[in-house]
């Protein structure tokens, strides 16, 4: 099939890779403009652009697709290029730009979106993060026929994926990316085209964009909730706290422990004990969190044993979320 592809991050690159391997023709790829990245803040092409160029595909990077928006010349150029493609379908995955009505109506078969959740749960920008943070037991991929709403389109295909107890956003992302590509290839290989099913009205929730400010650990929360957030915010933005000395520490792995009645009255954020294997911190509802892997400013991820060598006498210290001791 002749397909226009729109996507930006690695999640989208995986599906494009699968479509190309299946023999689909991609005359045009849409992706976000190059962004500054790395320590030198040099312009860097998106994973989708890098893959497209490696396969000799034509790439367009409009700043907007709105003909009446801030960059109408970008939108008009994109409109001409999309219309000239003669594509039957547009496949969209984590593109990052809103598709206006003219875009949705251009391909004869419309636009389908590869979304990383079991819709209508977790519509929006961060479905993988929010599913882990909420403690969901399962998630998946939904292929939907796009409309003008935010992930409100009718569903064409759905596949579930269990969330493992040790899954981070990084590990779950990689499995869902492969699943999304496979499901899309299977959909396009099928005949006839499936009937789209409207999303249920019940169970709608939104996966709001992850903000860096959310990284601060609130020790007043139960340990289980904090442990889920640690996993959900790996690799970005990370979960962090500050020591009594004002050093910001990121936590990359942690485990909720059973409540200790003898220490249930300890103020949340208090280090109850520190061993070479873990640092045990009091949390809300009398629960305890074992901090296992951390990262100091400018350093690398390391076991807590290495951190304790630079931070002796942790037991009894108070850890805070906002940098004030």
The CATH top-level class label of the largest domain: Alpha Beta
- Going by CATH, the architecture of the largest domain would be 3-Layer(aba) Sandwich
> What level of helicity do the residues show?
25-40%
Number of strands: 17
Strand share of the residues? 25-35%
Q: If you average the pLDDT, what whole number results?
A: 94
The radius of gyration is 23 Å
CATH topology of the largest domain: Rossmann fold
H/E topology pattern: EHEEEHEHEHEEHEEHEHEEEEEEH
How many helices? The count is 8
CATH superfamily label of the largest domain: Formyl transferase, N-terminal domain
Q: pLDDT under 50 segments (min length 5)?
A: none
What is the structural class? Answer: alpha/beta
CA-to-CA gap between the ends?
61 Å
Instruction: Estimate nothing, just give the exact number of structural domains.
Output: 2
The rough form would be described as: elongated
Strand order of the largest sheet: 5-2-1-6-7-9-10
What's the story with the biggest beta sheet? 7 strands, mixed
Protein name: Methionyl-tRNA formyltransferase
Organism: Pseudaquabacterium rugosum
EC number: 2.1.2.9
Keywords: Protein biosynthesis, Transferase
């Amino acid at each position: 099939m002749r397909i226009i592809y729109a996507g930006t991050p690695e999640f989208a690159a995986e599906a494009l890779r699968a479509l190309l391997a299946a023999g689909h023709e991609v005359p045009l790829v849409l992706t976000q403009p190059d962004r500054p990245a790395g320590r030198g803040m040099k312009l860097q092409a998106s994973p989708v652009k890098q893959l497209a160029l490696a396969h000799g595909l034509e790439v367009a990077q409009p700043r907007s697709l709105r003909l009446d928006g801030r960059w109408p010349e970008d939108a008009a150029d994109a409109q001409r290029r999309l219309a000239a493609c003669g594509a039957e379908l547009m496949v969209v995955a984590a593109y990052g730009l809103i598709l206006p009505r003219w875009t949705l109506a251009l391909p004869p078969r419309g636009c389908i979106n590869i979304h990383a959740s079991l819709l209508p749960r977790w519509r929006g920008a961060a479905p993988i993060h929010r599913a882990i943070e909420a403690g969901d037991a399962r998630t998946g991929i939904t292929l939907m026929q796009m409309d003008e709403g935010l992930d409100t389109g009718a569903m064409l295909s759905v596949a579930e994926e269990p969330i493992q107890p040790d899954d981070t956003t990084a590990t779950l992302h990689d499995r869902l990316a492969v699943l999304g590509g496979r499901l899309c290839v299977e959909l396009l290989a099928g005949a006839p085209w499936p009937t789209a099913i409207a999303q249920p009205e019940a169970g709608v929730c939104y996966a709001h964009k992850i903000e860096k400010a959310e990284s601060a650990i609130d020790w007043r929360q139960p340990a289980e909730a904090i442990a889920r957030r640690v996993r959900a915010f790996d690799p970005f933005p990370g979960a962090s706290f500050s020591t009594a000395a004002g050093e910001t520490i990121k936590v990359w792995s942690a485990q909720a422990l059973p409540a200790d009645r003898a220490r249930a009255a300890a103020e949340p954020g208090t280090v109850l004990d520190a061993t070479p294997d873990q640092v045990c911190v009091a949390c809300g509802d009398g629960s305890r969190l074992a901090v296992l892997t951390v990262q100091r400013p400018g350093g690398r991820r390391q076991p807590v044993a290495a951190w304790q060598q630079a931070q002796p006498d942790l037991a009894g210290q108070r850890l805070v979320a906002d940098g004030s001791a």
